[in-house]
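Task 17 of the worksheet. Students: predict the tertiary structure of the chain below and write it out as structure tokens. Keep your answer in the requested format; marks are given for formatting as well as content.
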Amino acid sequence: MKIKLMMVLIQFFILVNFVQAQRFGKNHVQYKTFDTYFLQSEHFDIYFTEGGQSIAEFTAETAEKVYKEIKADFRYELIDRIRFIIYNNHNDFESTNVQLRPGDESTGGFTEFFKNRVIIPFEGDWEKFRHVIHHELTHAVMLQMLYGSGVQSIITGMTRMQLPLWFIEGLAEYESRGWDTESDMFMRDAALNGYVPEIPYLNGFMAYKGGQSVLYYLSEKYGGEKIGEIIGKIKLAKSLERGLKQSIGIGVEDLTKQWHKYLKREYWPDINGREEPEEFAKRLTDHMKERNFINNSPALSPKGDKLVFLSDKSDYFDIYLMSAIDGKMLGKVISGQKSGNLDELHWLRPGLTWDPSGQQIAFAAKSGGYDALNIANVKKKKIVKEYKYKMDGIFSPSWSPLGDEIAFVGMQHGQSDIYVVDIKTGELTKITDDIFTDLEPSFSPDGKQIAFRSDRGGYTNPSALPANFNITNYNYRSSDIYTIDLDENKTINRITQTSAWEKYPTYSPDGKFLAFTSDRSGIYNVYLRNLETEEEYPITNVITGIDHLSWQGDGSRMAFTSFYYAGYDIYLLKNPLNTKPGDITLQKTNYITKLEKRQQKEFDETEELTAEEFEKEAEKPDFKNYVFGQNFAEGEVETPEEEIVFLDTTKYKDETGAFKVKNYRPQFSPDIVYGNAGYSQFFGVQGTTQLAISDVFGNHRMEIYTDLFYDMRNSNYMFRYFFLPNRIDYGVGAYHNVYFFFSNQLGLMRDRYYGGNFYASRPFNRYVRLDYSAAFLGINRDYLDLNPEFAPNSDVRVITQSLSYVKDTSVWGNTGPVNGTRSEYSFTFSPKVFGEKSLEFYTFRLDYRHYFKFKKEYNFVFRLAGGASNGSSPQQFFLGGIDNWLNYKFKGGEIRIENPESIYFSSFETPLRGANYYERVGDRFALMNLEFRFPLIRYLILGWPLPIGVVNVRGAIFSDIGTAWYKGEEKDLDLLHSRDLRLPALGEDLLMGYGLGARANVGFFLLRIDAAWKTDLVTTSAKPQYYFSIGAEF
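Model answer:
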């Protein structure tokens, strides 16, 4: 069983990590070609791209600090080096070839298990970067601790023990954050609204926050050192359940009960004295009704009567317009995530802003390999201007009330600064220029100042920054509100000065107040600062948290985002200035209260230390009772393996203490190595070898596969190489495969299928690409049971070329695409190069699919497919049946194997349910599918005789219609005509089926069950035909 599971893992790893030509799927685009480098620290190798040295140095120093904490907590030391791959920004990170699926902005980094590589982007925020380094390094260290080092050790270890996601991600969050107000907000909301699941069912974002909460609870109850003990017990017991019982005496079930009780005690008292957002503000969006997750970044129009916001309610992130008076939706302004110039709308760092006339809005978006600043006309609902500056990132624009400038956060060369663009000329001015994180700019009403938040602390004069300043040693784990004058002096003034996080500054329309959010009490509430008196006071007392402020019009309306009941919504606060100082007193949360007590205790204990205690000399070990070996006595000390693996300072730093930077050259290592061999007196040597190799960045990938059986003519072997660092992906391969078939008429046959191919794919953006392939194919058929004189062996040799245009904007659900469009248009050509051995054909194909989604869980699917093949040996299309049909049936009873063309140069066109395979055959085909998809069973548990449960079973009602024919044939293809003056009927050569089905995820695969009736609209088959198949819906 373990061997089988290992082979499944190996095959899965190969399939997901090596590029193959595919019909559909979004694109993994390399917009840039990088110069790459690396530096080293004691335990880590840091790889980075041009312009990222300072970020790489920060990574090295931070990772070493973090590792000391992890080592102490886990009671474990690394046995092998860990590689970090650092990208200067998120756009570059999304193009990494370490993984080949398209990235998106929600992924802040990942750890690749098989080679233990940590891949992280820098996003302009030092604290966020530190957190991701710590989080991902926790994964990497835990991986070594539990499974060892090296691909084979990891695969073997994972076949013996796999930990649940809540523990893996929860531990990484706990190690990197401990506990904080953001995590407290998520768990408070879950506890008060009753959606905390049992521990084994912590999924989605609850795997992170819920898992973190479980670990935090264990540390609070048993002490922080207990976490390391739990991990150690899990490693020894090869089981999470046994590890918990051996360390804390209870398993997951009892731990769930205790944790749930802890959450109630911790958060239920918070209901008293705090308000739900809807109790003091008007809700403008409803994520529960729309069944989405994100509604954020509200921006009130200058008059305060309209509001634009960002939402994922269509499954894509779009910009919507609504009335700020009655909340009526006024339509979609911008559709995102369907074209290359609006690839991402930065929902994690959003910002929408109006021009003073109220006719246009500005927003930032990913456009190709860079970010762009866009201006859209609200009425026309289209982009009228795009500014591109080839910056590493553009975020949070703010339009000057004077109308001539837009401020935004720009990322470049490892810095996050404030920029201002002149709208008319496009000229860019850098407002701040230093190492600190500057975010969320907001213009003052007179256009003379910009408020922003920053982690700069007291460094308001960048020129006064010490020459030896190192951001790694600086406390960047809080942010305050600042203003900067837009004159030639650019004076920075610090507005707030707390240890809390202050965010989202925005001026009152009259310029007398500055609003911002702060978590001083443990919950992000809105505060006002009177800019004349410098008095600060809260104006909300929300139970969860508030983000993204917008204050416009006459000052009587303030829009904000709040998290409540597991989603973000837009709210409108009326008359914020009516709340006066002292009207609201915020009570600190339990977490903040305990944190302050802990900090005070640590401070008191530090104060008690005397100077003498600091000066005490460390006690010297007494070796008088030790017995040393002869080698030690003679000065021969065996060098530990770690000293070879880990580096001395002189190896990675120069005489000045600077890191040594080296040019990167491809360094190859195996991704997978698998092999077995045997010998038989009859069959000779037998064996299988599978080898996959790639470099650190994943830009060069090779795969070698051999399956030796008897001799080379009866064996399978294959080689593939892919070159992936540039915009166009290239691949070459060579192969030899052997297939055996049996026919009642022809007996046993052997086909040797061999050749070589070339592949190139040019993505235009995430959604559109052009694929090209060329191949030489040779097929030798031997009739092993017949006399060669009567059945001579056949030999086919073909050169084919194919060009395909592919577009895919689809969004997937549990069983297949649920929204968007997929289409492919292809042309394949095979010239007659080898005389009689060649097959000459040229084939056109189209496949168009559109997915209409309504009421979130219901879909209507339309598909139209067709093809035509010409030439002296046209390709054949076999119509009928369904793909991956388990209980398959063939018209005529047998699969067509009479000649190689029927196997290797023909195609099954499906689905056409109600029919068998080969129901219609021709060199032309047309097929239309209509489906209505819906939730069939949400949750069902049987009580007797077995407690079997099924969840998320999808249903489908479908109709398929199509046909295939040969060129020149006269066919009755009328969709509707009268037959003997009776009811309308289908043409006699058209096939149609209709029926219903169910789709369920059964663990390793998706099972589809369909019942279909064949019909011509006059007569219908008496009994349905049943189809059991596997795989995703089309």
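Marker's comment: The first strand starts at residue 36 and ends at 40. Residues 53-74 form the longest helix (22 residues).
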